[in-house]
Amino acid sequence: MVTNMASVAVVEASSGKDVLAEGLLDLLKPAIQQLDLHVHSVRESQVELREHIDNLATELCRINEHQKVTLDLDPYVKKLLNARRRVVLVNNILQNAQERLRRLNHNVAKETARRKTMLEASGVFTSRSPSKP
Predict the structure, then answer these.
(1) Taking the CB of residue 96, how many other CB atoms lie within 10 A of it?
(2) What are the tens digits of pLDDT across the range 38-90?
(3) Angle 34-90-40 (CA atoms, 0-180°, nearest 5)?
(4) Which spans of this chain does the record mark as coiled coil (predicted)?
C-alpha cells in the first residue's frame, strides 16, 4: 500500500511538471511563430533592397560611361556595392536565425505532442473540452 501511494505521488509530481512544461511550450510557440514571420518579412525586404542597390549601381555606371563631362562616380558605385555586401551579410544572418527558429518551433511542437501523448497514456490528461455533468 505504501509503495502504491509513493508511485501515485511520483506520477502526480511528474504530471504537474509535464503540465507546466506543456503550458510553457504553448506560451512560447506563438512568439516563435510571430518572430519567424517577422524575420521572413525582413529577409524579403533585404532582397528587394539588394535588387535596388544593384539597379542603382548599374545605372550609375551607365551614366558615368555616357557623360560628356568627366564625373567620377566610381567612389559612389563602390559605396553602393559595399552597402550591397552588408545587406547580403545581414540577409545571411537572418536566414540562419530563421532556420534556428524553424528548428526550435519544430522541436517545441514535437515536445508538446510527446508530452501530451505521455499524459494521455498515463490517464492524467484528458481532452481540454469542458466535462459534461
Answers:
(1) 10
(2) 888 988 998 898 899 889 888 888 887 787 666 777 788 888 889 989 989 99
(3) 25
(4) 80-114
HSE of 85, CA atoms in CB hemisphere, 13 A: 6
The length of the chain in residues reads 133
CA-CA distance, 36 to 33, in Å (whole number)? 5
CA atoms within 13 A on the CB side of 10: 6
What's the angle, vertex CA 79, arms to CA 78 and CA 81, rounded to 5? 65
Instruction: Give the predicted TM-score (pTM) of the model.
Output: 0.54
Answer whether 17's CB lies under 8 Å from 83's CB.
no
Cα–Cα dist 119/126, whole Å: 8
